[in-house]
Design brief:
Helix content is about 65%, strand content about 5%. By secondary structure, it is mainly α. Helix 7 packs antiparallel against helix 9, helix 11 runs antiparallel to helix 15 and helix 13 packs antiparallel against helix 14. The two termini are about 20 Å apart.
C-alpha cells in the first residue's frame, strides 16, 4: 500500500502535514468528527430497508422484490469490510499519516454510494453489495481509524475524552443522515400507476403472484392497503409493478457526491504533532491503578496475550447485541408497536426513533468514555454487561404486554430500555481504545485497535444473522399458527388460492401476517409484536459471556512487555 501512496500522492503523506509551532490542536477534532459524521450514516441503513424491499412494487413488495434478509446483509458486509480494512490499515496509517488515509476513505465511501445507485436503478443486488458493502465498507474502516491515534497524540492529557471525541461523530452520523435520507427519498419517489380498487379490477393468482387483466394484456400488480398507499398520497387498491419509483437510486447518488466532497475537505484539515510535542505545561502523572500499565506491548505480541482476546470477546458480543437491533430498528419499532398503537407509532415516529438511536449512540460514546477516566475501564464495562442483560430481558416483556394491552407505558419502557442499550453500545466502541492503551501502552495502540476491530466485523455478521434468522423462524411459526385458525374457504376467497398453496403464497409475499390477521377469528392476538422475543433472550446470553470475560481481566504479564523505550519506538512525526 505504501508504494501506491508515493509519487503524485506524496503531498498527502504525514511528513508534509506536521503542525507548525503554536498550532491550535482544537482544529483537529472538527475534521475527525466531520469524517465520522459522514461514515457514521451507515447506522441509518435501516431507513433504506423499506424502499429497497419494494423497489419494483413501490407501494408494497412484489414477488421479484428483494427480501428484508437479503437487504439487511448489505449493512453486514459493510461492517465486515470496515473491520478487515481497519485491521490491515493500522500499520499503513502509521506509515503515511491520517490525511492520505482520509482521502482514500473519501473515494471509497462516496464512490461506494454511486456504484450502489447504479445497482438499485438496474435492480442488480450484487452491485449494491460491491459498492456500498465492499468498497464503502473499506472506506468506513479507513475513515474510522484515521483520527484515533492522531487525536490520542494531540491529547495525551485527556486520553478517554480524546477517544470518545474521535469516535463520537461516528455515532452521530445517523442523527443527521436519517432525516436527510428520508427527505431525499420522499423528494425523488413517484407512486406507481393506480388501476383501481381491489374489487373493481380482475385479478388472477399464478404461481403465488397476482396479475391484473387489462386491455394491454396481463400485467403483474401489487395490492396495497390504505396505510401502504397513504405514504405515496394514493388510496388502497391495485398498482402496476415497475411503474413507480421509491427514490432510493437518486438518494444514493446525491449522498455519494456530498459525502465525497465533505470528507475530502475534512481530510485536508488533518495535521500531526511534531516529534516530542506535548501540551504546554503538561507532564505525565504516575497512575496508581494496577489496571493501567506503564509498559508497552508490541503489536504482534499483543495478539499472544489472553487480555487481547478477552477484549475481543467483550467488544464482539457487546456489538453483536446492539448491531442486530440497529440494522432493523425502524422495522422493529413498527412491527412491535405499529399494529397495536397505529396512531402513535407512525412512519414519522419510527424515523424519529432511528434518529434518537443515533443521539444516544453518540452521547453514550462521549459520556461513557469520559466516565471511564474516573471509574476505570473495567468498571465501565461491568455497567455495560450487567445493565445491558437486564434491559435486553425487559424488551420481550414490553412486546408481549403491548400485544394484549396497547398502553403507552409499555412503549415508553421499550423506548427507554433501547436508548440506554444504544448509549452503552456506542460507549463500548469509544472506551475500548483507552482500555487497550491501559493494557498494552500507547506505543502501538492505533494498530492494536485496528486489529481488535475484527471483532466488529464478526459482530456485523453474527448480529444481523441472529436477528433475521430468529425473526424469520418466528414469522414462519406465526403464519402456520394463524393459518390453522382460519376457515379454509375464507382463506381461498381472500387469496384466490387454497390453503394448500400456503408456502408458495408466502414466498411470493401474497400471504403475510397482517393479511392473515384481517380474516383471523375474533379475539386472535396479533403475533407481530413478539417476533423479536427469542432474539432478545439470545442477546442477553451473549452479554453474560462478555461479563465473565471482563470479570477475569488482569494486567498483562511482564514477559509480554516491549523492552525499548516508548519514544524511540513511536514513528517520527
Amino acid at each position: 500500500m505504501s508504494n501506491a501512496s508515493g509519487g503524485a500522492m506524496a503531498f498527502l503523506r504525514k511528513e508534509h502535514i506536521v503542525a507548525e509551532p503554536g498550532y491550535n490542536r482544537w482544529r483537529v477534532p472538527p475534521a475527525s468528527i466531520a469524517i465520522h459524521l459522514c461514515i457514521g450514516s451507515v447506522y441509518a441503513w435501516s431507513v433504506f430497508n423499506p424502499p429497497l424491499t419494494r423497489e419494483l412494487g413501490v407501494v408494497a413488495s412484489s414477488a421479484e422484490d428483494w427480501s428484508l434478509s437479503s437487504v439487511v446483509w448489505i449493512f453486514s458486509v459493510a461492517i465486515v469490510f470496515l473491520g478487515l480494512s481497519a485491521a490491515f490499515a493500522g500499520k499503513w496509517l502509521e506509515d503515511v499519516g491520517p490525511r492520505m488515509v482520509g482521502v482514500v476513505a473519501a473515494f471509497l465511501w462516496g464512490g461506494g454510494f454511486i456504484i450502489g445507485s447504479f445497482g438499485i436503478s438496474s435492480h442488480q443486488l450484487w452491485l449494491i453489495y460491491l459498492g456500498y458493502g465492499v468498497l464503502g465498507g473499506c472506506g468506513l474502516g479507513l475513515g474510522y481509524v484515521s483520527p484515533v491515534s492522531t487525536l490520542i497524540r494531540w491529547f495525551p492529557d485527556r486520553r478517554g475524552m480524546a477517544t470518545g471525541m474521535a469516535i463520537m461523530g461516528f455515532g452521530g452520523g445517523a442523527m443527521i443522515a436519517a432525516p436527510v435520507k428520508g427527505w431525499l427519498l420522499s423528494a425523488f419517489q413517484k407512486a406507481p400507476d393506480y388501476l383501481g380498487a381491489e374489487g373493481t379490477v380482475n385479478t388472477v393468482v399464478e404461481g403465488g403472484r397476482v396479475f391484473a387483466e387489462t386491455a394491454a394484456g396481463k400485467i403483474e400488480v401489487v395490492i396495497a392497503s390504505a396505510a401502504q398507499a397513504a405514504g405515496f398520497g394514493g388510496e388502497a387498491g391495485v398498482y402496476a409493478v415497475g411503474s413507480g419509483n421509491t427514490g432510493a437510486a437518486q438518494t444514493f447518488m446525491v449522498l455519494g457526491v456530498v459525502y465525497f466532497i465533505v470528507m475530502i475537505l475534512a481530510a485536508f484539515q488533518y495535521r500531526v504533532p511534531a516529534k516530542d510535542w506535548k501540551p504546554a505545561g503538561w507532564a505525565p502523572k504516575p497512575v496508581a491503578s494496577g489496571m493501567v500499565s506503564q509498559n508497552n506491548v508490541h503489536i504482534d505480541q499483543a495478539l499472544k496475550t489472553p487480555q487481547f482476546w478477552q477484549l475481543w470477546i467483550m467488544l464482539c458480543f457487546n456489538v453483536t447485541a446492539g448491531i442486530g437491533v440497529i440494522g432493523v430498528a425502524k422495522t422493529m419499532m413498527s412491527e412491535i408497536f405499529g399494529t397495536g398503537m397505529p396512531l402513535v407509532v407512525t412512519a414519522a415516529f419510527a424515523s424519529t426513533y432511528v434518529l434518537m438511536i443515533s443521539v444516544f449512540n453518540m452521547v453514550g460514546r462521549f459520556f461513557w468514555a469520559s466516565t471511564s477516566d474516573f471509574i476505570g475501564r473495567k468498571a465501565t464495562y461491568m455497567c455495560f454487561f450487567v445493565l445491558g442483560t437486564v434491559l435486553y430481558l425487559s424488551i420481550p416483556y414490553f412486546a408481549s404486554a403491548v400485544a394484549t394491552n396497547p398502553a403507552t407505558i409499555y412503549l415508553i419502557g421499550f423506548y427507554a430500555a433501547t436508548m440506554i442499550i444504544f448509549s452503552m453500545y456506542g460507549g463500548g466502541f469509544a472506551t475500548v481504545p483507552a482500555y487497550l492503551a491501559d493494557m498494552f501502552g500507547t506505543m502501538h495502540v492505533g494498530g492494536i485497535h485496528g486489529r481488535l476491530l475484527t471483532a466488529w466485523s464478526t459482530a456485523g455478521v453474527l448480529g444481523p444473522l441472529a436477528i433475521t434468522s430468529l425473526r424469520q423462524m418466528s414469522v414462519t411459526n406465526a403464519i402456520g399458527d394463524l393459518s390453522a385458525k382460519i376457515d379454509p374457504a375464507v382463506f381461498a376467497e381472500k387469496f384466490g388460492a387454497p390453503i394448500g398453496q400456503l408456502e408458495q403464497l408466502v414466498a411470493a409475499k401474497t400471504v403475510t401476517i397482517a393479511k392473515l390477521m384481517e380474516i383471523a377469528p375474533e379475539g386472535t392476538i396479533d403475533p407481530t409484536p413478539s417476533l423479536y422475543n427469542t432474539t432478545m433472550y439470545c442477546m442477553a446470553a451473549l452479554l453474560v459471556v462478555a461479563f465473565f470475560a471482563n470479570l477475569f481481566m488482569r494486567p498483562v504479564k511482564e514477559h509480554h512487555h516491549h523492552n525499548e523505550p516508548e519514544l524511540s519506538a513511536v514513528p517520527v512525526e
